[in-house]
Amino acid sequence: MVGPVLIACILLLIAGFAFLPIVIAFDTEQATYLQIDVGGLFKAWGEATAQGWYLGIQLPFFRKKFNLFSIRTTKKYKQHDATSGKKIQSGKSIRQRLRPLEVISAFRLHYLEWKLDTGDYVRNAQLFPVLGAFCQPSRQLSVNFCGENSLRFKASTQVYRLLGSLLLRH
Questions:
Q1: Low-confidence ranges of the chain (pLDDT < 70)
Q2: Using CA atoms, how far apart are residues 15 and 12, in angstroms rounded to an integer?
Q3: Which domain range does residue 30 map to?
Q4: Given CB 3.0 to 4.6 Å as the disulfide criterion, which of 12, 68, 96, 156 pairs with 53?
Q5: Can you give the pTM of this predicted structure?
């Protein structure tokens, strides 16, 4: 009697994790440069302050901000012998190089707002019709002549879509 109930609870828990939303947001106007939220269970963000760059991590009962420049790595890298004359090949196939594109295709774009000013009036005038042609309700691309540069976007996916893009697409 306990066995089927336990199996059902485990399956419901796995199904619940499979449908957790993963939201990635980027906003230069509010100095939140990258924010990753996994269904309220985990949150990470990067921000810039006058003191430097910080990485924040939040779990249900834990919140911490780290200064990125105080983190030190102790990983040693192997020196390459330049006298051997052997070429080092990457060993990655075309399929492995396209893997990030498959992961990106699992995300859905909620909004994209890009305000661009190159500082050159002629170049701004040339970019104005080009970026205007790509505008849609979820994508606002604009050129301004006021010196404002900003980027905001929000994209989301779910764990099952992310796993499907990594494992099932051959």
A1: 70-99, 168-170
A2: 5
A3: 21-70
A4: 68
A5: 0.67
